[in-house]
């Protein structure tokens, strides 16, 4: 199986942008050290600062599932409870 590409869209509530951004940044170092993490890159929309995008590549679905079960993800979810307007994850297969 080809690597798994993830595009995660996180939209913070207007008054929570900086807090959500800070919590997202906390995820980067620990996640990049995880087995199976190829890249884990955070972006912020130039026109809508409440919109954050993680572009991620994982060696496998199992590596992603292990990531989603980590303590740092659980801590993030607890920290941003009530501060997120919307959240979507797209799972993509690399073709070329």
Automatic annotation (TrEMBL):
SUPFAM superfamilies, alphabetized: Dimeric alpha+beta barrel
KW Isomerase (keyword) present: no
Keyword Oxidoreductase in annotation: yes
Signal peptide residue numbers: none
Alphabetic keyword roster: Monooxygenase, Oxidoreductase
Segments forming domain ABM: 4-96
A molecular-function term among this protein's GO annotations: monooxygenase activity
PANTHER family: ABM DOMAIN-CONTAINING PROTEIN, QUINOL MONOOXYGENASE YGIN-RELATED
Pfam families: ABM
PROSITE patterns: ABM
Name this protein carries in UniProt: Antibiotic biosynthesis monooxygenase
């Amino acid at each position: 199986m080809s690597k798994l590409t993830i595009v995660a869209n996180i939209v913070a509530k207007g008054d929570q942008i900086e807090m959500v951004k800070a919590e997202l940044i906390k995820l980067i170092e620990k996640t990049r050290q995880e087995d199976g993490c190829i890249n884990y890159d955070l972006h912020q929309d130039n026109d809508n600062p409440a919109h954050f995008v993680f572009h991620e590549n994982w060696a496998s679905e199992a590596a992603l599932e292990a990531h989603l079960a980590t303590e740092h993800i659980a801590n993030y979810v607890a920290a941003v409870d009530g501060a997120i307007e919307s959240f979507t994850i797209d799972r993509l297969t690399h073709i070329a």
